[in-house]
Structures
1.
Amino acid sequence: MRLSQMLFVTLREDPAEAEIPSHKLLVRAGYIRRIGSGVYAYLPLMWRVLQKVSQIVRQEMNAAGAEECLLPQVQPSELWKESGRWDTYTQAEGIMFALQDRQGRELGLGPTHEEVITTIAREMIRSYRQLPRNLYQIQTKFRDEIRPRFGLMRGREFIMKDAYSFDADEAGMKESYRKMHDAYHNIMRRTGLAFRAVDADSGAIGGSGSQEFMVLADAGEDEVLYTDDGQYAANVEKAVSLPADAKPAPFKEFEKLDTPNTPTIESLCKLLKCSAAHILKNVLYQVVYDNGMTVLVLVSIRGDQDVNEVKLQNELVKLAGDYGGKAVIGLTVPDAEAQAKWAAKPLPLGYIAPNLKDDYIQSTKNVAPQFLRLVDQTAVDMQNFATGSNETDKHVVGANWGKEFQLPKRVVDVRSAKVGDRAVHDPEQTLKSARGIEIGHIFQLGTKYSKAMNATYTSEQGEEMPLVMGCYGIGVSRLAQAAVEQSYDKDGIIWPVAIAPYHAIVIVPNINDTAQMETAEQLYADLNAAGIETLLDDRDERAGVKFKDADLVGIPYRIVTGRSLKDGKVEVVKRATHESQEVAIEQVVTTLQEWIAQALAQ
Ligand code: ATP
Ligand code: MG
């Protein structure tokens, strides 16, 4: 393609809307344009990148035995009602764009396709002989994200590859999952990204397996905890670790003390001259279930630890049935406004004890009359601890479970693992922390959707059995931007060769110089004929402008028909290193072929 004929517009200034380097660069270099909140146009250069990413994804999915299809984006609400997700997706989480057609029928724009694929499987898979199956598509997804940001990283319309596997049993599903795991490794490696597969939260669905593929970059919205021996890496939402050992508490006997102005662990430690591990912290949460029921939750945990809200939410989903619900639609620390809706009297916030009386709750139809009391494992073995007294500005010390306080019946693991903790697999290893961008997520679903939607097959023994499913997503558009976030310098983008929009760009410093122009035309034709995707910068611009633009756009190899032409040579520059060398004109094609082959083999 000739730049003189392309819609090629670059910007000098960083766009005001962009916060992170990859977003700034993609806008400045003319890859994307913002059309609305979280909605972007993929301009011709970007579309080529996306096609390349898609092609690598496609090749690896096909090699793993999956079949490509294309599912509808417009999805009838009935399907989502069958799976039980319509209300959560349109109201509670509100992530699905919902609309009504002219007949008044409700529809959603697909944020994901479990419902659609399960209905297809229900109709088409009848017998164990048809298993296993794996179907995938590469398509635009719609999600009404509450905080769309960072360009393509978190859009409201974005491209995803999603795949769904169907197996006869758990063992089959695990095998399908393993194949996808390997395919994802290949995809990440081939796109040239430095990544890490990490254990991920599989939410209330349970099941043993869910992993995320993370690109490590400071702009990542996720935190990854890992050990240097390479044996452990997990999303902080899911991570486990050994809590630090606690020394015996300094309190000898039970007493209530005046502790003015000590609502925080830190202030209390200072006053009592003890460590945070000697304090029992009682944190109040408010959970709302999908049937509208509000439950007040009191979590007791060792004072040097923090509650992991994802783990807590998973525990609360398990208990949903006790309150007549199925799913959690909100989990918060209740603020003053929320408290006003149910508190019978002001709460002793900052001074709460595990035995806070239930009469603080003004029970109504939609509010459970008793606190749900949970105790984290770290708190169970505490002795002679300090904790609140349910009276402002007073704490008790020297308290024990079974004496002054009854140990809550429900013992849970809801503590956050954090950087510096010892690893479970080897206490010599400590957890390190890094930021990650979630590029892919693979998931052992089990029978959640097949049971809800009655998708069964007939087994070899003639029994009707639910299909056992897995699902596997890759953010194609997010991946493309993550590649930039991982690879740029002060001059612009440095594309990995495998997903660069073009391999090479031929720059003519002076288009009025016939020799320069003729050589450039010849190289441009020869390179393209040899399968090296090449641009020709034949614009009537100063050479400096052309070099700047080439750096910004990030094409891996630049060829300049300049001064050395008289010796039958051109200058060839590697974008990544700015390393430059003179190459004989007739050797340019073979040189680039070699470099590209080398880069792709990595
Ligand atoms: P996140 O935690 O980032 O919101 P998710 O867990 O909701 O993502 P999945 O449902 O697992 O995402 O979707 C599969 C993949 O699609 C993700 O791993 C991610 O790469 C991509 N993705 C998800 N949401 C977006 C979005 N709003 N914009 C761009 N890509 C996205
Ligand atoms: Mg995910």
2.
Amino acid sequence: MIFVTGGAGFIGSNFVLDWLSQSSEQVLNLDKLTYAGNLQNLASLDGNSSHIFTCGDIGDSALVSSLLREHQPRAVLNFAAESHVDRSIDGPEDFVQTNIVGTFRLLEEVRSYWNQLEGSPKQDFRFLHISTDEVYGSLSKDDPAFMETHRYEPNSPYSASKAASDHMVRAYHQTYGLPVLTTNCSNNYGPYHFPEKLIPLTIVNALASKLLPVYGDGQQVRDWLYVNDHCSAIRRVLEAGKTGEVYNVGGWNEKTNLIIVHSVCALLNELQPRADGKDYNEQITYVKDRLGHDRRYAIDASKIERELGWKPAETFETGIRKTVEWYLCNLDWVAHVQSGAYRDWVQNHYAGNAQ
Ligand code: NAD
Ligand code: DAU
């Protein structure tokens, strides 16, 4: 069995669904079900005994210890995190608690569990930490893309907390010999993406005839990867990655935010035209920039391609079409996740932000 944390969130739930679609190996899923965690993402697994869900915190040492001892997983994959940069700017506390303290406590329990294993279960055990390209900071227009050796220069409370967790993971390998692997991935998009992030927010706002907020000049660059490609990279790293190593994951898909919003609008114009026949682009509005906004991220994925033979299956064009189609077919999921708490946060965040 594998033990996944944060498996009810965007990437975690895609990973669990993907894993169980091609493996009979059980998944133990520990998720705190914060605003970003949603069991509806996993509804298709109802009644499937290969998926064992527990609601709880990675920082709850007693719970993690008892889960490890009861289920004896061969690997722990740590997806659990507070993940939204804007929320980390509004209130960093939860980011410190989950991303730093939570990861530390999880590592401690995993170390204790791993220490009492023997023989091949000990040798083959893996702790795979899912991290982000944001730990490397921001690139200028002509800088080469981030390699694994790029220095850490996190700029937001979110990326600083992820950087701290990456360092703890590394330290547990160097100091205690824990067999760890770390992946640093670029921006994901796809099904079950919470509509506080740029792509799903643009889709749901467009369909609800709301404004499409673009921060600053919209020329910031992100490197986009379809979520299933991230899942296949994680599977590959778990299977063949060298312990103690870091693998950057990305799809060589750098795009400005404005191009992303225009692409979504173009697909919606085609698939679900506005009742008044106008272009969804007319809903774009420029709003106040994010504090400390990183200008450009770009991932050099040559190490994982060369050493592990991984390649993304989707281009941006195929992935974004699948994504928009998924949202159009799953408006009930959108309505479900737009709870009162979500609405309050979005309203506060964008209030008075017009440029
Ligand atoms: P998400 O916010 O959608 O999901 C996070 C999940 O973790 C939620 O289900 C939440 O309930 C759970 N969680 C939060 N705190 C917890 C705690 N203390 N204990 C247990 N569960 C907890 O995030 P995501 O976008 O799916 O990101 C998953 C991981 O991938 C994160 O570690 C993130 O840093 C990393 N990552 C994300 C992206 C991206 O583009 N979304 C890119 C690279 C890396
Ligand atoms: O790079 C990987 C990271 O990608 C992950 O580690 C994070 O967990 C994930 O949230 C994502 O971070 P970003 O800040 O890049 O994603 P977000 O969707 O919030 O924003 C993408 C870009 O779009 C960013 O430059 C800010 C901009 N933006 C975002 C929102 C929500 C807007 O212009 N308007 C918006 O309303």
